[in-house]
Amino acid sequence: MAFALIWLAPTDAGIAALALPAVMLPRALGVSGWFDVTVCATVLIAAWSNVLDLYRTIPGWDLLLHLLCTGVLTVVAALILSRTDVVRMTRDTGARPRTSLVLAPVVALALSAIWEMIEWVGWAYLSDEIFVAYQDTIGDMAFGALGGAAAGVVLARKSLQRPSSTDGVSRHG
To answer: How many domains does the chain have?
Structure first.
């Protein structure tokens, strides 16, 4: 984070600041290793894509990352909603598969809307270099919803919990 504040543009430092809690949440939630790595890799690729300007230079990169990143963050949000007893959305909490199939795209759309509002605030108050356009926003949200639909399938079919130790030794260290 200090690197971002010192050497990167303010908007890029802001992206790094948003990525930091996203890469810490899976570990705090105690998810399986494969999903922890998936979340961290996806969020870091999305953040560095902004720093390296890949969203402007690679056609379709923006939509691909909205699909992938929103999908994995939808699963993280579902874990939080399930563990706080707001709504059961995970297989591990006994949710019916159809619950996650219906609610995950809704959660994804909410996350997409929040992201697009953050982009708009950044454009309106921080830098006019942030790309904000109606077509871009709608496309980003549509692909985010598709990522949410994929997240619903994952939530309905896979256990995301870290396996518990069978030898009595905690592996959470």
So the answer is: 1
pLDDT for residue 61 is more than 80: yes
pTM score:
0.86
Cβ neighbors of 116 (< 8 A, separation 6 or more) are: 137, 140, 141
Give 9-27 pLDDT, tens digit per residue.
Answer: 777 778 888 899 999 999 9
* Other residues' Cβ atoms within 10 Å of the Cβ of residue 95: 18
Cα angle 172-48-20, degrees, rounded to a multiple of 5 = 35
Q: How far apart are CA 63 and CA 67, in angstroms?
A: 6
Domain with 103, as residue range(s), is 2-157
With 0-12 / 13-18 / 19 or more C-beta atoms within 10 angstroms meaning exposed / middle / buried, residue 128 is: exposed
Q: Is residue 53 classed as helix, strand or coil in its secondary structure?
A: coil
- The answer to whether residue 163 is domain-embedded is no
Q: Report the C-alpha dihedral over residues 161, 166, 168, 170, rounded to 10 degrees.
A: -30
In this structure, what token pair is assigned to residue 7?
Answer: 């050497």
